[in-house]
Amino acid sequence: MLNSLSGRFLILTAIFVMLAEVLIFVPSIARFREEFLLNRLERAQIASLVLLAADEVSPDLQEELLRNAGVFNVVLRRDEARQLVLSSPVPQPVAHTFDLRDAPAFTLIRDAMLRLYTREPQVIRVIGEPVRMGGLLIEITVDSRDLRTAMIDYGLRILWLSLVISIITAGLLFLAVRGFLVKPIRRVVATMQAYAAAPEDARRVIKPSSGITELREAEETLQSLQMQLTGALKQKEHLAQLGSAVAKVNHDLRNILTSAQLFTDRIEMSEDPAVKRMAPKLVNSLTRAVHLCEATLAYGKAEEPGPTLARVPLAKIVADVIESERLSAGDADISFSEDVPAHLLVLADTEQLYRVIANLVRNARQAIVNSGRPGEINVMADEDDREWIIRIRDTGPGLPPKAREHLFKPFQGGVTKGGTGLGLTIAAELVRGHGGSLSLEHSDATGTSFCITLPKGNLGQGV
């Protein structure tokens, strides 16, 4: 109870109300003291008027008048003459004199607090103005015990009233907090617990319903996070299924490609010039296919192997990619060009860099073929003091909006119909493994341009 939000609100409200009552009590008790003394002055003035009206007053009557007024003596100043009107024996000397004429609030509060803390009975002198033009000044002496007793009684009444007010206020706030905050928060917590039990179930995503602005914003934010997490889990499940399927196919496919490599030895013995020219390309393609099968199995396990960095000639890699894609283009009206310095060496993994550039060039070729118009694909490279820069540009139709929105996301960023978007995802991951980045520079009706940057000081390797 006390550790709950509503319980702590209850306690804090009671404390704050009591503090507020204390702040109210201080000036209130000062005002009560002033009213008490003014009342004694007024009663003393009435008693003095009785004495002035009569020709002769007996000592017993004077004593009764002073007792009813609650004072020891009364001094009245009229017409510049100061006169002791009523008097009786004073038990002790006057300890303090208080002038109530135009007394500032701070003085009244200070004197009231001192009176509460002074337990010893004292005789005090009080000076004030007579009421109804009854003179210029009236002065009385009184016992402080009656004043202090009345002030304590008044303070206790204030205390009990404050307790009642604080309890009622805290109770009302407790009910309000439970209704407006605790119950909606518990509902959100219950929804989160239900969602945590089965985050793949989209039916368990919270539906914002709170009428409180802040809670509504929290619910909407939580809904967005849950939807993103549900989508990510579904994508992860899809990737896991893909990895399982690839693992099943990979073993047999790798054996088939290995057998095909054995046949290339006999092909290389052919005397046909065309075969001699194409055989090395076939050998390289089969070797890359075997390596890709091994790497694909690792990717299916979400364990893409790290790059084996070495100084490699970029021009040769680009030439191999373009020649392979030129053969794949067949009769399509696509021209390939490259602008890569022959001496340019980059620090990279040969096979992985080949896969990156091949994926980008292949995507560009497929986009141009699907558009039904002629096009051009260009691969260019440059370097500066910090990095190597490789750009793949084409004059195709550009990426569709959905592909740009979900770029580098598997199964969402596909460009061609039926595409999975894995090519760009794999390329971006491989480039990140080199410590570089793959970015889309622009894509519109005039074509698309991707940029690969590879750092020159990577993974502890020298430049």
UniProtKB/TrEMBL annotation:
Molecular function, one GO term: phosphorelay sensor kinase activity
User: EC number(s) in its UniProt entry?
Assistant: 2.7.13.3
Where does it mainly reside?
Answer: membrane
Keyword Secreted listed? The answer is no
Q: What does it catalyze?
A: ATP + protein L-histidine = ADP + protein N-phospho-L-histidine
Q: Which CDD domains does the UniProt record give?
A: HATPase (cd00075)
InterPro entries documented for this protein: HATPase_C_sf, HATPase_dom, His_kinase_dom, HisK_dim/P_dom, HisK_dim/P_sf, Sig_transdc_His_kin-like_C, TCS_sensor_his_kinase
Report what the protein is called.
histidine kinase
